[in-house]
Amino acid sequence: MKNKRIIGLLVGVSVLLCSVIFLTTMSSQPKENKESNASQIETNINNNDSESKETPEQKAEQTKDNNETQTSDSNTTKTETNNNKTNPTTSTKDNSTTNNNQSQSTPETNTPSTSESTSQYVYVSIDCKTILNNMNDLPEQYKQYVPSNGVILSSKKVKINDGDTVFDIITKVTKMNKISLTQSAGYIQSINNLPEKLFKGSGGWMYGVNGSYADKGSKDYKLKNNDKVQWRYTCYIGDLY
């Protein structure tokens, strides 16, 4: 009987101890949670206090820094934009310089114009060399008009137009060189003040083309490019041959 009582007592004590431990454990957990929550609340309060304690000067300085950062970003963007705008102009100038250099380095070629290449010319001369051989028969008042070599006009290159005649060219060349000329209906009567019939009723002016004397009037003879026209004074028949 005594053993049963002792065992029952021990069991009861064990149950009591377990209850006490259980209760103690249960009561300690809420306390720790409460302390943790309290610590969290205190931290939040401190953070709010630190934010509220920020001075207006600090806020203004922070705002200024933000503005400066934005301005710097804006200037950087403008600089990039300006660089992009400048590049095409620079490229255009470079291209222009290259083109100018190329055009300067291109050798010039002397190409005759179309008008010059299609122009036509003849050669005209005037002389009275036969008179030099007959000076004794020449009337005195005309001797002053006879050149010492008998050449009144050395060969001259004269431009002609289509259809120009010997008469057209002799009137043109004498006018250009200020040589006197008289004519009647296309017949040449006098050149350089030396008229026909000075030698005892004989003498006069004759023309030849390319070394041959023509058998028609000067108004009827049409010239071609590079023709050679000679006007010569004849004193007597046959002295020009």
Describe this structure in words.
By secondary structure, the protein is α+β, with helices and mostly antiparallel strands. It is 50% helix and 18% strand. It has helices at 2-52, 56-105, 114-118, 129-132, 166-176; strands at 120-127, 151-160, 181-184, 187-191, 194-195, 204-209, 212-213, 228-234. A 5-stranded mixed beta sheet has the order 2-1-8-6-7. Strands 3-4-5 form a 3-stranded antiparallel beta sheet, with helices on one face. A hairpin with a 2-residue loop joins strand 3 and strand 4. 11% of the residues are buried. The model is unreliable at 30-34, 48-54, 74-94 and 102-109 (pLDDT under 50).
> What strand order characterises the main sheet?
2-1-8-6-7
Shape: rod-shaped
Helix content: 40-55%
Instruction: Kindly report how far apart the N and C termini lie.
Output: 196 Å
How many individual β-strands?
8
Low-confidence segments, ≥5 residues, pLDDT <50?
30-34, 48-54, 74-94, 102-109
- What assembly state would you assign to the polypeptide chains in this entry? single chain
Q: How many H/I helices?
A: 5
- Could you say which structural class the secondary elements and strand pairing correspond to? alpha+beta
Computed Rg: 66 Å
What sequence of helices (H) and strands (E) makes up the elements?
HHHEHEHEEEEEE
- What about the largest sheet? 5 strands, mixed
* Mean pLDDT reading: 76
Strand content: 15-25%
